[in-house]
Amino acid sequence: MVKITVNGQQIEADPKKPLIHACHTHDVDVPMYCYHPGLSPVGSCRICQVEVKQGEAPGRVMVACRTYPAEGMVVDTESPKAHETRRECLEFLLKNHPLDCPICDKAGECDLQDFTYAEGQAAGRTHEPRRPLEKRKSLGDTIVLDEERCILCSRCVRFFEEIPKQAQLTVSDLGSRSVISTFMDKPLKGKYQGNIADLCPVGALTLTKFRFQARVWNLTKMASTCGECSRGCSTTVEVLRGSDVKRIRPRENLDVNGWWICDIGRFAFSHINAPNRLEGSLVREVPGLSIARNEDALCAVRDMMMRHKEVLFLVSPWLTVEEGQKLLDYSKRFGSKPIFVSPEHNSEKDTVLHTGDPCPNRRGLTELGIEGLPQKAAIERMQKSKCIVLLGERIVELIGASAVEALPHATSVAVFDCHALDLPQVQACVGIANSAERTGTWVNIDGVKGPIAAVKPTPRNVRALERHLDDLVKLSPSTESMGARAR
Amino acid sequence: MVIVKRKELSFAEQLYIPEILRGLSITFRKMFEPKVTRQYPEEALIKTDVTRGQPRLVVNEDNSIACVSCGLCEAACPAYAITIDGGETEREIEREPKRFDIDMLRCILCGFCEEACPKDAIYMSDELELADYSREALIYDMDKLKRPKKALQDRIDYVNRINDRWQTPSST
Ligand code: SF4
Ligand code: SF4
Ligand code: SF4
Ligand code: FES
Q: Which whole-number Å values give the CA distances from B61 to B58, B64, B68, B148, B150, in the listed order?
């Protein structure tokens, strides 16, 4: 650690990290385009210039992302000289930039727009027309490139070189004709492509799945955790008008995912936005399942469990720690312990983030004492039991509706899932909130807790599993009287 | 507590008839003066240059919509009357609205949207009438809002004239 002075304020800085990092950690604003804390610095955009004085020499303007703090350095980010240099750099960056913010997806969260607004001149000084380039060049299924908007910061190039460690993009051609392109114009591949759309400081790289669908200032952003693998990357879920999940983006968390997430988590809204939700509850009446109040359905579930001596609680690995704990306490009354269905590892495992294990809360549930059972073993257990309670989102999907269908008709099954399951064995179905509609905690593979946020309201009459469990406890006779019944 | 005293009426006022006659004399006098009321709706409202009616969307000569769904009018609208969903098009300008609703019951005809629009795509037309049988019918969608540019030309000219008065040359 070395002592430096930034804008008159004495700070301790790490000499191995660029000056800009020290400034940002001490809330000193320095603009940047090419620097990214997760990538190696290159110093190509020159917008981060600050005035640096060392010893007796007069102050020099230097790029803060390629200068490293040294003992006794005096930095002024707001000196007239620094401002002037940054403004000149900005003018160069804007020379060919279309500034078509009204149709640009980045508008509202664009570093170039913000800085132009703060520092730029109201009118340009060039009279020549701007360089025309391709405005919608497809870089594969995920990304569209607008060559005109690109400021050649090369963040996207470095991302592929340094994070998935597989170079896919490059700067081709020379001078003002330089553009970003893939090698031999091949489409991008791999599952980390989406990150470059977040990385791009301007609106040059956009997501095909989000393009033009919403303005970013209309999105409500909430901190959450990805549920697609046991890494549990920290995410920001962005919702349009309270109910439509539009984007999932990485949230900086150096303990888990750094600045990135994979495309599986990024586009995991098919499940969150799924149609045909079970709204409310269903209870078996002759001849089929009919709509019932939640309380009645819970009573039916309770009666079903009381009729049988043994109850098998099978839960999904998407259960939160809080739900797991409530269920564990409740299942003690029946002398049984819940088991979670643990699907097999998939082939998505890689060296960057994805663990290949689709259970986001494996560690949390295991630490509570809820064991995991592979799908096959779980189905075998089901065949041996007379009374089964399936709980948690995607549980039916995990075991397979056919596995329930194959059970003898005398088996009683109750389902707590987001979708209804209409089979003769099912006595009651209770709709529950999915992972975008409830709060809770998942514990990732390394033991880091991740919050999940209720980013949108549940459908009518649907509640979180935790609430249903609370009510089940209230509706059930106390433990002592149940013990008496068993005797 | 304040006690308000009634005005003591004079004998003539208590008689009532003289006062009625005085009132009627005013009525008769006014009958021969020029009329200032209008028989709305049989008689249309007088529209002037500054009349600011309901907002309408401009349709270009080539039948494409001028709006690019940038959302600035939506953001500027103080009454939250505008709702826009954008989408991609094949046209040269890549973006256009897929849904553009203005809730006419919320719209307060302030003209902020007209002022905010960077694409000259929304103008306060001279249409003022607004009546229907349900609230839903008064949430106007894109089809109800679209107007050919010609129909809005008077307003466009007026706005340009006003803008010229104080605008400095812009960067684009
Ligand atoms: S990249 Fe930024 S400055 Fe450029 S058009 Fe888009 S929003 Fe505007
Ligand atoms: S596309 Fe974006 S990230 Fe890549 S070089 Fe251009 S501005 Fe930078
Ligand atoms: S401000 Fe103009 S271009 Fe933008 S959404 Fe409104 S009408 Fe369309
Ligand atoms: S951020 Fe320092 S040169 Fe680009």
A: 10, 7, 16, 7, 9
